[in-house]
Amino acid sequence: MDVKQALPELADIQLVIFDCDGVLIDSEGLSKRELLILLSNLGVDITDSYFETHFLGHSFEHVTAKIYQDFDVSLPATFRPEYQKALIAAFTAELQPTSGLTDMLDALAVPRCIATSSSPTRVGHAMSVTGLERYFAPHIFTASQVENGKPAPDLFLHAAKNMGVDTQHCLVIEDSPAGVQAAKAANMQVIRFAGASHMGPWRRAVDPLSDDVTTISQWQNLYSLAPALTNTMKSRGNRG
Question: Where are the domains of the chain?
Answer without folding.
Answer: 3-26+96-229, 28-94
